[in-house]
């Protein structure tokens, strides 16, 4: 593709971003204004004009999925070969390359959950902490490491940052120190350690830093508002004294400050780079004027620091956002599933619909409701596509066929036919099996691979089986699942940067949004920004709902999220929907624990409705929320610890 044609799909401001191929660039703009599009086209333009070779570009994105999508987009624009990774994936890759060269010995094992180690550390400190406290302490240690505070600095830092840990700060500091000691003794590396160690290796070994800087000369960071001090330090080390850095972000979408991220690097970019080119984007290309109006309304009500990044809708009018109130969460899920079904029947593809919630624990109710309504769904964050047995088998077969060589390509069948043929050996056929069982799930996985081959052939008609296998391997290493046909179920955190035609924001009740443990004004404002992120994911249909009680017949009545005050009646379709209670689904199988979801076997537990060691009603929401948000962060940024990189690309 010609470099100039890459600029064609951009408005003048986006074009200015793409054309500023060198030096520091900062784009500060609201959701849906084309920030990600602008940087994608910028990279394509810079590589196609020959300003920089693709291998010299490091694009840092927030999730592995975003990284994968950026690579696919670049391939479509005729600019393959760019490295797009999360901070963690980039760090791990560099670390595993340099480990045998400058450190030696057994590489550490990566732990993606701190809980076990924190429990051991607490015990060694003579503290007896419950599950909730342990999770809280693990979160505090993560925060301290991300914000680069040592154990002895923690008590003062926690006061300055107005955090309210549930355990005494001095005790957290003791556990933190012990945690680090045990971690070193056991040769373990946590997520923060991965970044720290990479930065340390680069700082201490000049030749290593030179090698990395020789490889990467051109840096682009998406979602820069959620960069934390540790990531920023690593970025600075990568850059050295150079300044080919382009960052884009939206301060109103800062949703990770509870883990130490801060929009101050985005807002202070010009102070750090006085000669930076600053571009503002205001046209919202994603959402209808109705959705944009609600998004602007959510941010207008923000207290304290708020950033007036007005969005000006470009799309045609669409339906008004819908607000629905239900008796309980089961009724809410049932009706949401029914309405998703209706949209699909009206012609909206299932993959263009998302149901987003504040905490992952809400997902189970929706899975059951969707299954009952016969709506296919895909879980975001939990999917582990490349670890599914049928996918592993298919990859082995495809690899074998690619190795067997040219015969598959020379008989004139082309990539699509070859891939379909190989997949048929793994049980793939053109038509899905009846029903929604395991056979169907298996078919869906294989169909996704077949679709990927079609997409690849469309992007690059010359691509053959070896290129396809290489793409699969790259995706597997990055855990970048191909698009699967189904309604997306995801947390608001995981939905960042993505978009769908229809979005259902579920559970918009006090206690869930804002989440029950959000206490300080800063925490409350972060919850409001989560709503802004959720609202701005919708292109056309947007629906917000909440339930008055958690379970059928439940007595704890909740009220709709305070963030909706004054917004629900701005639009015309506020309509409490009461679902007929007699139609409620009967759950099959053993009764699950209300708190952790495990099947209850003991009679006493069934009577309680929860496992004996799960917290009682009072602490329930807090427990679920805490259990969840840690998992959420690590799931989104997780990279497999077993990946061995064989090539020398850092
Ligand atoms: P977010 O803040 O949510 O990450 P963003 O600013 O990164 O949003 P994009 O995802 O890049 O926005 O763009 C939003 C949508 O608008 C995408 O579907 C994109 O293709 C489309 N879009 C962006 N710019 C243009 C344009 N100039 N012309 C047409 N469509 C555009
Ligand atoms: Mg984006």
UniProtKB/TrEMBL annotation:
Domain of life of the organism encoding this protein: Bacteria
Domain UvrD-like helicase ATP-binding: 8-288
EC numbers on record: 5.6.2.4
Domain UvrD-like helicase C-terminal intervals: 289-540
Keyword DNA-binding appears in the UniProt entry: no
The entry's keywords: ATP-binding, Helicase, Hydrolase, Isomerase, Nucleotide-binding
Species annotation: Actinomadura montaniterrae
Gene3D superfamilies (UniProt xref): 1.10.10.160, HRDC domain (1.10.150.80), P-loop containing nucleotide triphosphate hydrolases (3.40.50.300), PCRA, domain 4 (1.10.486.10)
Binding-site residues for ATP, renumbered to this chain: 29-36
Entry-linked PROSITE patterns: HRDC, UVRD_HELICASE_ATP_BIND, UVRD_HELICASE_CTER
Protein name per its UniProtKB record: DNA 3'-5' helicase
